[in-house]
Amino acid sequence: MASVMGLQAILEVYEPDPANLLDILHDVQEADERNHLSREALSDVAEYVGLPASSVISSATFYSMFSLVPRGKHIIRICESPPCQLVGAESLLDILVETLGVDVGETTQDGAFTLETSSCLGVCGVAPAMMIDEELYGNLTKERLAEILEAVRSADDGS
Amino acid sequence: MTVPERKILLAINEETQLAGVRDIERALRDALQTRGLTETVQVVDTGDLGIAGSGVILRIQPDNVLYGNVTSADVDEIVGEHLVGGRLVERLQIHPEAEPGVYRGAQTRIVLWNCGVIDPESLEEAIAAGAYEALADVVEKRISREEVIDIVTRSGLRGRGGAGFPTGRKWSLTAQRKPKYIVCNADEGEPGTFKDRLILEGDPHRLIEGMILAGYAVDAERGYIYIRGEYGLSIKRMQKAIDDAREAGLLGDRILETDISFDIEIRKGAGAYVCGEETALIESIEGKRGYPRRKPPYPGGVGLWGQPTVVNNVETLANVPPIVHLGVEWFQSYGTDTCPGTKVFIVLGHVEYPGLIEVSMGTRLRTIIDEFAGGVRNGGRFKGALLGGAAGAFIDESGLDVEMDFDSLREYAAVLGSGSILVLEEETSIPELLHGILRFFRHESCGQCAPCRAGTRALLAIMDRLLAGNGLATDLDLMIEVAETMEARSLCPLGQSVILPVTSALRAFRSEFEALLPVVV
Fold first, then answer.
1. CA distance A59 to chain B (A)
2. What angle in degrees, to the nearest 10, is found between the helix axes of B145-155 and B204-218?
3. Under an 8 Å CB criterion, which residues of A touch B?
């Protein structure tokens, strides 16, 4: 999780107003090593914006971009919208499940990837598409998928 | 600083990014540096050029030359031959206007006018291309708030988010209680839709101006743009545009030293389709779960923090500045009598050139598919299309001549919705596609009201068993019954609109569903 100092620094960017809650949660999650919102962080955010912790947890659990369980270093979000489905996203998901050895919502044992789906990434012109963290990949094929995963892994090993 | 003699416009969109446009941009800047051309030639990132299937494209201005499928290896030749030597590199030149389908025909661009033409991160370029002219008109000609509402009302502009409600009327229905708010709905989550993203990324100042005008019209001083969290580049560009506009005195207290005050903040969504519904979006801005509110009261009376609020879609607001600046008659020269103006469509699926086009309202579906998207891919046969996204309707071949506007589509029991057109070739399985749509709705139902929460689950369960070969003879009727109950009893348009894909699929392609039923011996 974000260190205590780190969390304070994030909070202080914002006015202590419930209206800033989603933006704060985005920033807190982004700063977290495991890509998630810990219970402690949620309590601290609640205290800062002046809401009961239950309200903050209620909001955080509603939105699919937030996770209350620790995730992998990289989040893979494969698009399963009809335009992507039409050009083969379903079989790509099967390939990802098989290659990574995890189901949707799970994290690989080495902690490298969490596999998620997205309702629509809004890049339908290059369907089928997926995002890994902030990076977008389109016109996916089985071969490209393997290459991309390999490239992400080797970039990590090199760093 | 010298004024650059030439500009190289580089289209940055998902297609060109995948084709390596960033590497090419780097090579281009290096080559200009090497040849000492950085003062005279400016490299400009721009949005979609409206040209599909040509990889990375450079447009050199004012020469008006287009080079397509450019790779890093070509950069030196372009710089050396064209920019230094003044000779065309013919092997790379593309002539899109001569190739129907590639240029997507003769589009009529109003809201995308500047997209792909200006640098969206430059306020100066936006102003040179006409940004804030309508605002200047309002200030110089002392156009009153009422007159702005009147102009927009008379223009006949209707909401481009899907429902088609008259924009001027929405504004005039805003209660007289301050403070009031303008909320721009940029939570573009409808599957198969990315028109608003291109406006946010390609011409952010247009949206800012539209919001200032809306704010002035209804006497609101604060605006919010709610952008979906997945749209990183949109958020970045929009924030830059807001900061630049504020710096230039176009946002903030006493805009351009007038009595008009207006400022804008961005709110970032976090992945919830239902937040595209206006009251759910308002709840989300307030930091809560995106649960839709019961209507009435409508946001115009009780909206953000209980105050009167106008919620408009990105494309709607982008239409406002040209309407105010160029007038009602000009706007009405496009489109149909009841749906004036243009519409941005997203043509996807089994077409030769998937992508985005802007054409007059009322353009025939057949024209859009054949002339602008190159027809069904590989010369295949047209089976049907899903119009308007997941919350849209299927049409079959008999609907090919429908005029794409709010009213004509109703005659086909279809909707314009988000403007998404998913074209399906002969081999497509409609039950499988509907299965995907129902899975989508089950995932995105917010769970607040029972008809939608239970209905989306029931529909998916029925579709699951049909596809598994375990369907019951009564299942097709049951699906319609469930969807009808959802339409009648759900709290918000999410649950209410599931009936559109369900009944239209079962009506137009019933035999495919019947084929899934077990054979009765």
1. 5
2. 120
3. 18-23, 25-26, 49, 51, 55, 58-59, 62-66, 80-83, 85-87, 118-127, 129, 131, 134, 136-139
What are the chain A neighbours of B290 within 8 Å (beta carbons)?
62-63
Residue B43: both structure tokens together: 């490299």
In chain B, residues with a C-beta closer than 8 Å to the C-beta of A55 are 288
Task: Name the phi and psi angles at B144, rounded to 5.
Answer: -80, 165
**Alpha-carbon distances of B234 from B125, B188, B229, B411, B447, rounded to whole Å:** 18, 11, 10, 36, 29
| Sole residue written with tokens 């903040």 | B265
Strand pairing partners for B387? B393, B421
Strand-pair category, A130-132 with A135-137: antiparallel
- ipTM for the predicted complex: 0.93
pLDDT along chain B (521 residues), means of 10: 74 72 88 87 76 76 83 89 87 65 60 85 92 96 97 98 94 96 96 92 96 98 96 93 98 95 97 96 96 96 98 98 97 96 93 87 95 90 96 96 96 92 95 95 96 98 97 96 98 96 97 91 62
Look at residue B513 and give its three-state secondary structure. helix
A58, A82, A138: residue with CB nearest B192: A82
Residues of B in contact with A45 (CB under 8 A): none
**Residue of chain A nearest B390, judged by CA positions:** A82
Q: Which two tokens stand for residue B514?
A: 């019947």
Chain B residues near residue A58 by CB distance under 8 angstroms: 288-289
Instruction: Identify the CA nearest to B9 among candidates B95, B116, B122.
Output: B116
Exposed/middle/buried for residue B471 (C-beta within 10 Å: 0-12, 13-18, 19+): buried
Determine contact, residues B421/B387, Cβ cutoff 8 Å.
Answer: yes
Query: Sheet harboring A113-118: ordered strands across?
Result: A113-118, A74-79, A130-132, A135-137
Residue numbers in A near B188 (CB within 8 A): 122
User: Is the Cβ of B447 closer than 8 Å to some Cβ of chain A?
Assistant: no
Cα B65 to Cα B94: distance, rounded to the nearest angstrom:
8
